[in-house]
Design goal:
homotetramer, mainly alpha, Arc Repressor Mutant, subunit A, 2 domains, three-stranded antiparallel beta sheet, 3 strands, DNA-binding, DNA-binding transcription factor activity (chains A, B, C, D)
Chain lengths: ~150, ~150, ~150, ~150
DNA sequence: GTGGTCTAGACCACG
DNA sequence: GTGGTCTAGACCACA
């Protein structure tokens, strides 16, 4: 499960993590019954405080997306509601589209051209895919913690 | 001066406003000497608290981008430093690119395809341009010349 | 709003606080629209850490019982669901009855007689009523903080 | 030896078990020399994890209430100190009274009347007695006398 | 090993 | 003034 956090971003770290895990659950990358990384592992992997991850998991649990089992771990729940997660997925996508649009808007204000934006999009898609692929092959849990790069 | 705020967004309202004004200044939509809307007008227009706008203007003033003249209003300053705003513009663009990339990443996690994203980009660009044009015809926001009245 | 916390108890402080606030909301002591004490005030009044209260409020907000408004305070929400809070009240009472019964069970194991238990009940009821009354007359916010008594 | 655990309760399972065994010891339901059920039996009977019961027995042993004899089982010890268990009994009762009072307090917050509470108390006492009696007829849980076998 | 609670203190954002 | 996020570290409970 690949998670990417943007340290300088205006949106709080916890929210970035939460939204990405939620995306994984809703889009099926994480299936019901799958276990999430333990609170501590995810915290060290992402280089954030344990409590930050705890709050993320608690909120996802309150939403009914995951379940925390004392002493066992945290697991993805099957979707409850009638229409299940389809509604939620749609909601999340709409929200995402609004944010996307806002970023583009700001990009144009900064003088970026349509061509530049398209190039940026292509690159971003390629990068993301590379990340996701490399992860699929990933050796289990040998990631460096708290490298000082990229902050 | 068109400003668009995304209510449900994770990035705080004040930051959204600040970044868009900064973008306008750096990219030349707002020229040195131009006046910003009054704190109250902008607050009303955007539906946010007056203090929020006050703090935005204060920070922009602290950055040296604008100047608040007591009793007159807030005005865009000519760029100070040697390379002036070019450095700042570049910084802002880099930041923007990181945010763009993060949004695309999340979009892909939510299952959006490259095609969908490209379509979204095209629409967003068109929307933004439409907004900017419609605004160009607006009343030119009453730019007072620096009168020596009052204090 | 009277809240009583038992420091040596096995049930965590945050849970004690949460259950009492929930009881106040469900039974009508706290009406929709009423404001809860601010996070910091309640924390100092009870002599607990601010974060503890924050977590309590967050969980009540996740339950849909209250709403936290940034910069304004925390407020009781009108009950949502169809049957409203009646179901929840009933649930809470059942839970309470089970706990009551468990305590009585343990009391009897410790050799308490029916008479002693009845006396204890009478006293407890009287104490609680006294607390609730004295609070009704209470001078607003002049309570001592962190007295070292009663731990 | 009747033990009743309340699954949804806020106080941890292990503590519930420990307190009830302690109550049985202090009040004389369990006499010095009596054997406790084996760790596995009790765990199965209560439907909890074996380790949970192990830790309970270890703590009771650390308190000096019971003794774990390797390969034989766990046995109630005669009371050590001068005043022995009288002090401990008194302590436990005080703690119990505080918990009782807290539950009553919460019951009143939930809108229960004095009459309802008294009814509840009567029922709880009756239930407990029924449980204890039915158990008295049980098979007497195989009390081995301290054989000098093994070590 | 897992999650859960609590503390203390810092800094940010909104009204 | 209000709530919100983050850190660091301690200790407890469950499997």
């Amino acid at each position: 499960m690949h998670i990417r956090i943007e340290r300088g971003s205006s949106s709080p770290i916890s929210r970035q993590i939460m939204e990405q895990i939620r995306a994984h659950c809703l889009s099926g990358t994480l299936q019901p019954g799958d276990s999430l990384p333990s609170v501590r592992k995810l915290a060290t992997r992402l280089g954030v405080n344990v409590n930050t991850v705890v709050r993320v998991y608690e909120r996802l649990a309150a939403e009914g997306l995951v379940e925390m089992r004392h002493g066992e771990g945290t697991f993805v729940l099957p979707q409850s509601g009638v229409s299940g997660n389809r509604e939620q997925l749609a909601e999340q996508r709409e929200q995402l589209e609004r944010e996307f649009s806002a970023v583009v808007h700001r990009g144009i204000l900064l003088g970026l051209t349509a061509t530049e934006l398209r190039k940026l999009l292509t690159n971003s898609i390629a990068d993301t895919r590379a990340n996701l692929k490399s992860e699929a092959v990933e050796q289990p849990e040998s990631r460096p913690v708290k490298t000082e790069s990229g902050r």
